[in-house]
Design brief:
alpha+beta; 38% helix; 101 residues; 4 helices; five-stranded mixed sheet; single chain
Length: 101
Amino acid sequence: MNIIFCKQLQDGKLTPTAGRIVIYKNFIDISRGPSRDHNDLLRSLASKFKLNKDDVISNAIRLYWDRKDKDSIIVCPVRKLDEDVYYMKQDFHDQLIMSVI
């Protein structure tokens, strides 16, 4: 599976197959479909792993994702900060994402 990191997906233009991803340190949560927003995922991540909610909300990476085809997914940052942090540890983030897709 290949990850294509780009800026193609945006909130308000998500298809029914698109979803959201949040990453905080080595913890990840993902939604399938546009029904859960990033804030919901962030609170869920903090609760699931007993993390400080304020730290998670302030410091997690927010991404959108969708399947491009059977061998590729598109992953897009929400903010410039998310893009910068993603690229700082791209291989690590790619592995986390692949572990839940």
